[in-house]
Amino acid sequence: MAVAPSHGPGPFAITKAKIFLVVSLAFTWWLAHIFPHYQPMIRAEFKSRIGEARQKIPSIKVDWHTTEDPRAAFNASKVALLIEPRPIPHLVPQLLHMVTVVPPDWRFLFIGTAKSVASVGRAVAIKHQQVIGKLDLMIMPEPWEIESKESVYRMLTDMRFYNEFLPDVEWILKYEHDSILCANSESSLNDWLDWSWAGAPRSPDDRFSGNGGLSLRRVSAIRRVLEFQARYNDTEAEDEWFGKRLWVLPGEKVAAGKNGVLAVEDVYIEQPMGYHVRDGGRGLRDEVWKNHNQRKKIFEYCPELSLIMDMKLERERCHGDDREGSVHPTEQELQLERAKAAAEEAKKKLAEEEAKKKAEEEARKKEEEKKKQQEQEEARKKEEEEKKKAEEQKKAEEEKKKADEEKKKADEEEKQAAQDEAKKILADEAANGQSQDSTPPATEPPAADPNNSQPAGSTDPPSSTEEYADGLGREEVHDQQS
Q1: Minimal CB count within 10 Å: which of 149, 299, 444, 472?
Q2: Picking from 263-272, 301-310, 323-332, 399-408, which range would have the lowest pLDDT averaged per residue?
Q3: Locate the DUF5672 domain: which residues (predicted)?
Q4: What is the distance between the alpha carbons of residues 218 and 169, in angstroms, rounded to a whole number?
Q5: Span 314-334, mean pLDDT?
Q6: Cα separation of 325 and 268, whole Å?
Q7: d(Cα 439, Cα 409) in Å, to the nearest integer?
Q8: pLDDT, greater one: 42 or 473
Q9: How confident is the model at residue 394 (pLDDT cuts 50, 70, 90)?
Q10: Which of 162, 176, 175 is nearest to 86 (CA)?
């Protein structure tokens, strides 16, 4: 079998790859040959550059065991206070925002439970604020409690709380999880330090505008109240309790109406320092939040509200939403509603017809039942009448039978009396006959018998006693046979 000749280059053919390999090897050998001659110069150049860099680095001394308290860099008389027992997710961004908005000389104190403190304290930014002395996280020791609103009210109206935990504090900015200060506010919190109490009014003419959800309080004024007054447990909230007493306390500057309004809650004002949205937006007043344009103005002025409010995106808005709390149906929804209403009407009409038919059927059944009952009642009455009639007839027969028996008994007694009388007469006649046989009778005619129908002068002799007795005997025998 013949093999086809090969037309490829041989092993000694010159190609681009071989040329590039030869040139690379030659260049490497050349560098290796000249490098020892330049090595001292390269080393000297590196050393000079490193020396210049060392000269430019500033000298730093680290004191690992500092004795200074970092909190001393801040004003101990000004504290922003947040009390929250629940580990709410937005507490960390809310705290960090308040740290940037509140004047830098203020310190922050967060009082919580083990869960809420652990939730807040694990954030790196919070740890940094703790290290620099800006923020303290505190769990209240026993017997103090913050689990309920009432326990917080009791703590804030107790002089021991201010003496033990806030001994050097003169001003307190108390805020809650649903309140926030606006970064666009032109006024500073330090501009309000001459007020004894400033907050949010509940009505335009509220004599004490001190709603405690976001309020500035002067501790010296609070101490004045607590020196002569004590709050009863389970009564009004602590801000209302303080307000009634501070409002009449001489020398104290207290917010009233729209004068001294620090925040907005139930009464709208333009560009306040902050907002208190009750329960995170679940208890909003229509006077403040219902109007779309006003609400848009609020969010443009204070976009930080989105941190604490339960909000949705614009694309999540319901169809037909008029942006003022009402949802109007679309045309398609209206058609569906009409169809649904028509179906409901037809269903209702059918149900009414069925109910009417059922009622008629029940009425017919009741009528039949009533008729049947009447027939049964009539039959029962008829049966009772027949039974009564039979009983009366039976009673009459018994009475008749009894009367017959009594009559028969009377006849028997009468017959027995007649027999006894006849026997007596026979006995008397027999006795008289014996006496006549011995003595002849007188010739006087017998006396007339009143029971005898014959005249007194009749000469017919009476029937003999033997015939009379014989008649009585035959009658007695006849009665016995019958």
Answers
A1: 444
A2: 323-332
A3: 136-276
A4: 9
A5: 72
A6: 18
A7: 44
A8: 42
A9: confident
A10: 176
List b or e across 25-48, with b for residues whose CB sees 16 or more CB atoms inside 10 angstroms. Answer: eeeeeeeeeeeeeeeeeeeeeeee
Instruction: Classify residue 247 as exposed, middle or buried by CB count within 10 Å of its CB (0-12, 13-18, 19+).
Output: middle
Confidence of residue 463 (pLDDT cuts 50, 70, 90): very low
Instruction: Tell me the pLDDT tens digit for each residue of 344-381.
Output: 999 999 999 999 999 999 998 988 988 888 888 888 88
For the CA atoms of 403, 406, 412, 413, the dihedral, rounded to the nearest 10 degrees, stands at -140
> Does domain 70-316 correspond to CATH entry 1.10.287?
no
SS (H, E, C) the chain: CCCCCCCCCCCCCCCHHHHHHHHHHHHHHHHHHHHHHHHHHHHHHHHHHHHHHHHHCCCCCCCCCCCCCHHHHCCCCEEEEEEECCCCCCHHHHHHHHHHHCCCCCEEEEEECHHHHHHHHCCHHHHHHHHCCCEEEEECCCCCCCCCHHHHHHHHCCHHHHHHHCCCCCEEEEECCCEEECCCCCCCHHHHCCCCEEECCCCCCCCCCCCCCEEEEEHHHHHHHHHHCCCCCCCCCHHHHHHHHHCCCCCCCECECCECECEECCCCCCCCCEEECHHHHCCCCHHHHCCHHHHHHHHHHCHHHHHCCCCCCHHHCCCCECCCCCECCCHHHHHHHHHHHHHHHHHHHHHHHHHHHHHHHHHHHHHHHHHHHHHHHHHHHHHHHHHHHHHHHHHHHHHHHHHHHHHHHHHHHHHHHHHHHHHHHHHHHHHHHHHHHHCCCCCCCCCCCCCCCCCCCCCCCCCCHHHHHHHHHHHHHHHHHC
What is the C-alpha separation between 115 and 139, in angstroms, rounded?
Answer: 10
Model confidence pTM above 0.90: no
- Token pair 């400033």 is found at 198
The residue ranges of every structural domain in the chain are: 70-316
Closest CA to 115 of 146, 87, 83: 87
What pLDDT band is residue 274 in, cutting at 50, 70 and 90?
A: very high
pLDDT beyond 50 at 56: yes
Are 233 and 150 within 8 A, CB to CB?
yes
Q: How are strands ordered across the β-sheet holding 179-181?
A: 179-181, 274-276, 263-264
* Residue found by looking up tokens 């027939």 in the block: 375
Q: 201-239 burial by CB neighbour count: b if 16+ within 10 A, else e? A: bbeeebebbbbbbbbbbbbebbebbbeeeebeeeeebbb
